[in-house]
Specification:
Blueprint lengths: L1 H15 L4 E3 L8 E3 L2 E2 L6 E3 L1 H5 L8 E2 L6 E3 L7 H9 L5 E3 L11 E2 H4 L1 E2 L4 E2 L6 H13 L6 E2 L13 E3 L4 E5 L4 E3 L4 E3 L3 E13 L3 E4 L6 E2 L4 E5 L4 E3 L4 E6 L2 E13 L4 E2 L6 E2 L4 E4 L4 E5 L4 E6 L7 E4 L7 E4 L10 E5 L6 E3 L5 E2 L6 E2 L4 E6 L8 E2 L1 H9 L15 E9 L2 E9 L5 E9 L11 E2 L12 H8 L1 H18 L6 H11 L2 E6 L10 E3 H13 L6 E4 L4 H6 L4 H5 L4 H11 L8 H7 L10 H8 L5 H19 L1
Parallel strand pairs: 1-8
Antiparallel strand pairs: 2-7, 3-4, 5-6, 9-10, 11-35, 12-25, 13-16, 13-24, 14-15, 15-23, 16-22, 17-19, 18-21, 19-20, 21-22, 23-25, 26-34, 27-30, 27-33, 28-29, 29-32, 30-31, 32-34, 36-37, 36-39, 37-38, 40-41, 40-42
Length: 646
């Protein structure tokens, strides 16, 4: 599908064509925290920190982790040597300048862009970095496959497809919070996570003459662990935490979080050292379970044979009971466990198999119902080019997940037209109780239960994250990071490496417009979309005159919409919907300032990039405008003189 890749490139070019390096430094203090990218669960480094910060300017000083002295000052460009040195002394996070945080009014500044990847030197003013970015993303698009595929999970699934094993030795730091204890194992009662520390290096204490580290001490690559029997110093050669156990010294990495499914059996204890490939748990990848959290007696609600319950009998087999979909609005099949004091309620989704009887005495950890994953509709994860297009167009995914708007408490409100009704109760800044209503389709697996506390931005049900929700709830920085990571994920899957700054430029353009909430004294209109830097100037002017500034909220626009909403009507008319844009411009009496490259090419002027950039022409040629400008001026002057003579 070369055509799709070509069309994506064309859209990207139109979005980014007016991004030119215009000034030396925009003066922002903001940056982007860079860490090395590791594969989930397996500690394989996909992209090292030194590679990621290469050719970037530092947003803040970098200190030596051991001595505390400054290794590099803010505003320094990271070259190959410095990148390797920063990594070697064991620094794991670096704050660098990023195009996403650049505050230049027109184009972008040298410091936020950093190194020009074509020449290997710092970028120069006048470089058309927008075009470079669009081409760098569009060209590999021709190599991306058009297929849809399934992506495997984090924990490695062996042939039995259910053993949970680790690819490296590790310490179990923290077990899931929601577990029920049995004699031989523990059962996870809700989707949860387990924290482990992977072992990077191990040393036997008997091989040392003298040990120079203590338990729980942080070490860096150049630190000495101890002296061996030959008097040779042994270095750590990595960053980590020292743990002493059973005559051995272990150096462990950062905490790694492993997601654990509900119904997983866990065979390890907290603080235990687990060898490589040892089975730490058993999970069923083909089903989800509903597990009891307390001991008590089962009580059915709205589980009525024929209405909400389907009974299957087969000769020689056990009777199987399934919850079926019902048209009755008032019926919501639930299991209540009557225990000492509390009565937890479990809502049963349609299609799940019932595994307990009414009145049955059960213990915490018993399975109440099983949801076969064949039942959960198999949703393909779209990969390749369609996924990239979906992300750049900021489309809402078909099966998007719902997000908690604030920290608060979830309340179940029943069912309406085949959808679950949930309410989120939270306190606003004044301390007043507020409620948000969520209607979630019944085919989603709910991740929350009645009376459960949730955090802001937490997913309430299965599905994909929606970029617009992330922007609204968590803000601009989070949505930029989400888009960047997801787009890079698709390209990495195909083995294509694209520098972050190219994708960053496009995302910056997608987030360039803001929507007016309250116009104040600016003369703007509610819901009007305006460039954020233009609004900043308008607001500053109004404040200096003693008026009230406009309030606004950030918006995320897809690339087609961004390309059609540029300030230049010539550039957007040459992209799509020409008649509509030109009529609109004619009615408004619009003016085009000819800021970007495209509009200048169309009217036949010198493009404002490279040697055509205004500052260059003023400095070296000593002229204000191009030859075309002077020609027009001369004609105007002559005409004016002719009119006077008459």
């Amino acid at each position: 599908k070369t055509a799709d890749a070509g069309y994506l490139t064309r859209k990207l070019i139109d979005v980014a064509q007016n991004v030119v390096v215009s000034i030396e430094d925009c003066g922002t203090k903001e940056g982007l925290i860079m860490t090395s990218i590791k594969s989930p669960g397996e500690e394989r480094i996909i992209e090292a920190l030194s590679e990621r910060i290469l050719g970037r300017f530092l947003a803040e000083d970098v200190f030596h982790p051991r001595t505390g002295e400054i290794v590099a000052k803010a505003g320094t460009e990271v070259d190959e040597e410095m990148g390797v040195y920063i990594e070697r002394i064991g620094i794991q996070k670096v704050n660098v300048r990023s195009v996403l945080a650049c505050t230049a009014d027109i184009g972008i500044c040298v410091k936020c862009y950093g190194r020009n990847l074509a020449t290997g030197r710092t970028v120069e003013k006048g470089e058309a970095v927008g075009i470079t970015a669009a081409q760098s993303i569009g060209q590999p698009g021709t190599q991306l496959t058009m297929r849809t595929f399934h992506i495997g999970g984090v924990a490695s699934m062996s042939s039995e497809a259910s053993k949970l094993t680790l690819k490296y030795p590790a310490f179990i730091v923290k077990l899931p919070e929601n577990i029920a204890h049995r004699e031989e194992f523990k059962i996870v009662t809700r989707n949860d996570e387990m924290v482990i520390k992977n072992v990077i290096k191990e040393f036997l204490t008997e091989n040392f003459k003298e040990v120079k580290v203590t338990d729980n001490m942080k070490v860096y690559p150049e630190d000495i662990i101890g002296v061996d029997k030959n008097g040779k110093e042994i270095l750590a050669e990595c960053t980590g935490l020292v743990i002493f156990q059973d005559e051995e010294i272990y150096i462990t990495g950062e905490d790694t979080i492993i997601d654990v499914k509900v119904g997983t059996q866990i065979f390890v204890e907290e603080g235990e050292l687990v060898e490589k490939e040892r089975e730490i748990g058993l999970a069923d990848p083909n089903a989800d379970y509903i597990i009891a959290e307390i001991d008590g007696k089962v009580q059915f609600e709205d589980i009525i044979p024929g209405a909400t319950l389907r009974i299957e009998k087969e000769a020689g087999k056990k009777i199987q009971k399934f919850i079926k979909e019902t048209k009755e609005e008032m019926l919501l099949p639930q299991i209540v466990i009557v225990g000492k004091g509390e009565k937890p309620v479990y809502t049963l989704p349609a299609g799940c198999q019932l595994l307990v009887e009414e009145g049955q005495e059960i213990q915490a950890g018993d399975t109440l119902a099983k949801i076969s994953t064949q039942q959960i509709k198999v949703k393909d994860i779209t990969g390749g080019l369609p996924k990239v297009t979906e992300l750049f167009e900021a489309r809402i995914p078909k099966n998007y997940s719902y997000m908690a708007k604030e920290d608060g408490l979830i309340k179940f409100k029943g069912k309406l037209r085949g959808k679950y009704i949930l309410a989120l109760e939270y306190h606003d800044e004044e301390g007043e109780l507020r409620k948000v209503k969520y209607t979630i389709p019944a085919d989603r697996t709910l991740y929350v239960r009645d009376e459960e506390e949730v955090k802001k931005g937490q997913l309430l049900c299965s599905g994909e994250k929606n970029s617009h929700d992330i922007l609204r709830i968590l803000g601009v920085a989070e949505v930029s990071k989400h888009l960047l990571d997801r787009i890079q994920e698709v390209y990495r899957e195909q083995g294509v490496s694209i520098n972050d700054k190219h994708i960053g430029i496009i995302i910056r353009q997608m987030l360039a417009k803001v929507e007016i909430i309250e116009p104040g004294d600016t003369g703007l209109i509610i819901k009007q979309r305006i460039d954020r830097f233009k609004l900043k100037q308008v607001n500053e002017k109004v404040i200096s005159e003693g008026g009230a500034p406009a309030t606004f909220r950030p918006t995320l626009m897809g690339i087609t919409k961004t390309a059609l909403n540029t300030d230049s009507f010539i550039a957007s008319a040459s992209f799509q919907e020409t008649t509509r844009i030109l009529t609109k411009a004619a009615i408004r009496g619009a003016e085009d300032d000819l800021v970007g490259l495209k509009e200048n090419v169309i009217v036949g002027k010198l493009i404002p990039a490279g040697t055509g950039i205004v500052s260059f022409r003023k400095k070296f040629i000593g002229e204000e405008g191009s030859a075309f400008d002077r020609h027009v001026r001369r004609h105007e002057v002559l005409e004016a003189q002719g009119e006077r003579k008459e």
